[in-house]
Amino acid sequence: MTNHPSDAAAARMARTDMGDDIVLPFTVDTLNIRGRIAHLGAAVDTAIRQHRLPTPVARLLAETMALTAMLGTLLKVQGKLVVQAQTNGPVRLLVADFRAPDAIRGLARFDEQATATLIDRNEATPAALLGDGQLVLTIDQGAHTQRYQGVVALHGDLQQAAEEYFVSSEQLPTRVRLAAGTLTDETGEHWRAGAMMLQHLPPPAGKAVNEEQDQRQQARNADDWATAQALFDTLQDQELLDPAISPERLAYRLFHEQGVKAFEPVHVRFDCGCNRDRLLEILRRFSPAERRDMLAEDGLIHTTCEFCNEIYTFSPKELEQSPPKAPPHDA
User: What are the distances in angstroms from CA 34 to CA 24, 162, 175, 243, 255?
Assistant: First the structure.
């Protein structure tokens, strides 16, 4: 769909109700930019409700998940993207992973006392909670492919680190905006998160007749990116979080005068992916002595998934049993 400022009907074509937990790709060809907008509701709310997170920590986790969903939907049919913020601050670790085609989860590890002290002092800013560290993006496209890992410095600002990652990894000027907060309705308070990304693409290949034309092309290219950034800077957090403002409507708000083409959104959902059979297989790899050390007072082994807090219980007898053999192919 392409919207043009002279076409009054185009404004009505921008869908106002697209639902939550989606990522919308779009392009603005006149400015040589491409972008994506993530609009997350239940996916982040479910992840946060699994844990007792202070509000400032929950906000950072929701933003990390929004960033991960926005980037993860770029993966092909199979693959996994893991985004980790590893820091020396009270929030030591933020992790979110996206498993193609649509599953996302996340967790946060933090120093409860140090975080509570910052909150009591009204000093729990992202910079104070994160400190210095690194943002690590790991892409695994599955079997027979080489895993890719990119690392950039993190100085208390997830947005800035994400922008620097793209500049260094793709050599493309990039802007990133992250937002997270709560919305209260008749059913209670719920977490939401949003993210938006703009990237400036190289101009279409052309034949410059002379150096003067080449310089004019470079100047136009710089002006286009300046215009895109100026419009991007008008974006408000509330616009990324308001369920009444669809990603398509938001893209139109920002770029309707330049003409914006929105593509079909990609749907995402919270899915931890933990599996009792998989955990059983892992526990069977330990020696009998190691498994005895894992026994609780009730004589059972209890494991808790860090992402969803699901508790799995195993008996020693169950762990000693051999796994069932696969049936023959002609069964």
Answer: 11, 16, 11, 23, 12
Spatial distance between the Cα atoms of 121 and 91, rounded to a whole number of angstroms: 16
Among candidates 313, 308, 312, 326, which has minimal Cα distance to 46?
308
Which of 1-15, 128-142, 148-162, 189-203 is the least confident region? 1-15
DSSP, residue by residue, 309-330: --EEEE-HHHHHSPPPPPPPTT
Task: Indicate the pLDDT class of residue 205, thresholds 50, 70 and 90.
Answer: low
> Around Cβ 225, how many Cβ atoms within 10 Å?
19
Q: How far apart are CA 263 and CA 261, in angstroms?
A: 7
Question: What domains does the chain contain, in order, with CATH numbers?
Answer: 2-270 (3.55.30.10), 276-320 (3.90.1280.10)
Integer CA distances (angstroms), 37 to 25, 52, 78, 235, in order: 7, 28, 22, 12
Q: Coil, helix or strand for 266?
A: strand
Instruction: Dihedral sign for Cα 236, 46, 64, 260, please.
Output: negative
- pTM of the full structure: 0.83
Please choose, from the candidates 251, 229, 126, the residue with its C-alpha nearest in 3D space to the C-alpha of residue 174: 229
pLDDT at 208: 54
Give the neighbor-by-neighbor strand order of the sheet with 103-110: 148-155, 132-140, 80-87, 91-99, 103-110, 269-270
CA distances from 122 to 58, 111, 129, 145, 180 (A): 16, 16, 12, 47, 18
